[in-house]
Specification:
The chain has 412 residues and is an alpha/beta fold. The chain has two domains: 191 residues, FAD/NAD(P)-binding domain (3-Layer(bba) Sandwich), CATH 3.50.50.100; 143 residues, FAD/NAD(P)-binding domain, CATH 3.50.50.60. It is 33% helix and 27% strand. The protein has a five-stranded parallel beta sheet with strand order 5-2-1-9-21, covered by helices on one side. Bound molecules: flavin-adenine dinucleotide and nicotinamide-adenine-dinucleotide (NAD).
C-alpha cells in the first residue's frame, strides 16, 4: 500500500464555500504557501463559483447566468487546491470535523465562507410565497417565473392583470439594482409577448422614509427619478407586513393595503448561512463577530470570511454592511494569517477594511456611486466604474484570461 508520508504530516486547511470569500482565500493561499506546506481542500455545493453581485441581472433576465458562474476548476490550481463538490451539513468544531451530505472531512484549520441567505424577519408568508435573489438557482427561477407570467397572460380568456404586477420588497442596494434591471427587461417582455407596457406595474416597497437609507441624498434622488421615468412605482415609508399567494399586504401611516401580484421578490435583508448558527457558533443573524485576525472568538483554528463574519466599524460602533468588497479583502488577510499559523508564527495580521466606495447599477449604462471618500458619480461614468470594479475582481481571480472570458467588456 502506498502511504503519502508528506501528506500525513501536512496540516490540512478546509475552506467551506467558494463565494468571494472562500474562493479568494483558496487562490491567495496558492500564492502564500510553498508546495507541500499544507493540504488545502475547498468545498462547495456546486462545481462553479458565481458572482452574487450579478444575480439581480440573472433574475431579471438581462444577463444569462452562464456569464455569472465560473467553473471552480478554472479558478484554482488543482495541484495546489483539492476541490470537493458537496453540501456542508454541519461543522463540529470541537471534533475538528465537517459533515457533508456525502461524507465528512477532518481539518487542522477551517475557513467558513458559506455566504448569505435571505432574512425574512419572520414576516408571514414570505418564505412560502416570495422569491429571493440568493444564488444562481433562485435567480434563474425568478427569470423563468416572470417569463411564464407574461407568456400566460394572453392565453387566458379572462385577463389577470396581477400576472403583470411585479413587487420588489426593499429599496436597499439589491432592491434598487433589481428594479433597474426589471425596468429595462419589461419593455422587451412586452414586445415578445404582445402586451401593452402600461399594463405592467413594477412596485418597489421600502419601509424606511427613503430609498437607499443612509446613502447620499442627491444620488438617491437621481436613482429614483431615473427609475420612475422608466415606470417604477416607489412606495416609500411602507412596510411589507405579509405575503400571500395573491400578493402582499403593506402598511403605511396605519393604513393597510393589499397589492395583488403574481411576482413578489423579497430583497429586504440578508443574514449569514444558517449552518454557522446550527453548528453552535455564537452568531448575530448568522454572522460571527470575529476577532481582529478574522478568527472565531472562541476557536483558534477557525476563520470566518465574508457574509458569515461580522466586523464592527469602530468609528460609528456599528457593523460594516456585508459586501463582496469586504469579503475579497478579508480573504487576503485570512490566507496570510493561515500561512503564518502553519509556519508557527504567532503574530497575526489585523483585518482593516480599505473601502474604495460604493457603486450601484441602475440597469445597463446607468449607475450611481461614491468613490474616494466623497466623489459622486452618476449615469454612464458610474456605470463604467461599476464594470471596472467587476473586471478588477475577475483579474484578481484569474488574470487577463478570466477578464476576457467573463468580464463586462462593453464599457459604454
Ligand atoms: P457568497 O457569495 O454568498 O458565496 C457563498 C458560497 O458558499 C456559494 O458558492 C455557495 O454555493 C456556497 N454554499 C452555501 N451554502 C453551502 C453549503 N451548505 N455547502 C456548500 N457550499 C455552500 N457587494 C458588493 O461589494 N458590491 C456589489 O455591487 C454587490 N452587489 C450585490 C448584488 C446582489 C444582487 C446581492 C444579492 C448582493 C450584492 N453584494 C454586493 C453583496 C455580496 O454579494 C456579498 O456580500 C458576497 O456575495 C458575500 O460573499 P461570500 O463569499 O461571503 O458569500
Ligand atoms: P439591506 O439590508 O441593505 O436593505 C434592505 C432594505 O429593505 C432596507 O432599506 C430596509 O429598510 C428595507 N426593509 C426591511 N424590511 C422591510 C419591510 N418589511 N418592508 C419594506 N422594506 C423593508 O439589504 P440588501 O439591499 O439585500 O443588501 C445586502 C448587502 O449587500 C448590503 O450590505 C449591501 O450593501 C450589499 N449590496 C451592495 C450592493 C452594491 O454595492 N452595489 C448591491 C447589492 C447589495
Amino acid at each position: 500500500m502506498k502511504v503519502d508520508v508528506i501528506g500525513l504530516n501536512k496540516p490540512k486547511i478546509v475552506i467551506l464555500g467558494a463565494g468571494y470569500g472562500g474562493i479568494m482565500t483558496a487562490v491567495r493561499l496558492e500564492k502564500e504557501l510553498k508546495m507541500d506546506e499544507a493540504e488545502v481542500v475547498l468545498v462547495n455545493k456546486h462545481n462553479y463559483h458565481y458572482q452574487s453581485t450579478w444575480l439581480h441581472e440573472n433574475a431579471a433576465g438581462t444577463l444569462h447566468h452562464d456569464k455569472t458562474r465560473i467553473p471552480i476548476n478554472d479558478c484554482i490550481n488543482k495541484s495546489k487546491t483539492k476541490f470537493v463538490q458537496d453540501t456542508v451539513v454541519e461543522v463540529k468544531p470541537d471534533e475538528k470535523r465537517v459533515i457533508l451530505e456525502n461524507g465528512e472531512l477532518s481539518y487542522d484549520y477551517l475557513v467558513v465562507g458559506l455566504g448569505f441567505e435571505s432574512e425574512t424577519f419572520g414576516i408571514k408568508g414570505l418564505k412560502e410565497h416570495a422569491f429571493s435573489i440568493s444564488n444562481i438557482n433562485t435567480a434563474r427561477m425568478i427569470r423563468e417565473h416572470i417569463d411564464y407570467q407574461f407568456a400566460t397572460y394572453n392565453n387566458e380568456p379572462e385577463k389577470k392583470d396581477e400576472r403583470l404586477t411585479l413587487v420588489v420588497g426593499g429599496a436597499g442596494f439589491t432592491g434598487i439594482e433589481f428594479v433597474g434591471e426589471l425596468a429595462n427587461r419589461v419593455p422587451q417582455l412586452c414586445a415578445e409577448y404582445d402586451i401593452p407596457r402600461e399594463k405592467v406595474r413594477i412596485y418597489c416597497v421600502e419601509a424606511a422614509p427613503t430609498a437607499l437609507p443612509g446613502f447620499d441624498p442627491e444620488l438617491v434622488e437621481y436613482a429614483m427619478n431615473l427609475l420612475e421615468s422608466k415606470g417604477v412605482e416607489f412606495k416609500i415609508g411602507t412596510m411589507i407586513k405579509e405575503c400571500t399567494p395573491e400578493g402582499i399586504v403593506v402598511e403605511k401611516d396605519e393604513k393597510v393595503e393589499e397589492i395583488k401580484a403574481a411576482t413578489v421578490v423579497w430583497a429586504a435583508g440578508v443574514r449569514g448561512s444558517g449552518i454557522v448558527e446550527e453548528s453552535g457558533f455564537e452568531t448575530m443573524r448568522g454572522r460571527v463577530k470575529v476577532r481582529k485576525d478574522m478568527r472565531d472568538p472562541n476557536r483558534d483554528d477557525v476563520f470566518i470570511v465574508g457574509d458569515c463574519a461580522l466586523i464592527i466599524n469602530e468609528e460609528i460602533n456599528r457593523p460594516y454592511p456585508p459586501t463582496a468588497q469586504i469579503a475579497i479583502q478579508q480573504a487576503q488577510t485570512v490566507a496570510r494569517n493561515l500561512a503564518s499559523l502553519i509556519r508557527g508564527e504567532e503574530a497575526l495580521e489585523t483585518f482593516t477594511p480599505d473601502l474604495k466606495g460604493t457603486v450601484a447599477s441602475l440597469g445597463e449604462g446607468e449607475a450611481i456611486g461614491v468613490i474616494m471618500g466623497d466623489k459622486k458619480l452618476f449615469g454612464k461614468t458610474a456605470s463604467m466604474m461599476k464594470k471596472v470594479i467587476d473586471n478588477r475582481y475577475l483579474y484578481l481571480l484569474g488574470g487577463v484570461p478570466m477578464v476576457l472570458k467573463k468580464g463586462k467588456l462593453k464599457m459604454f
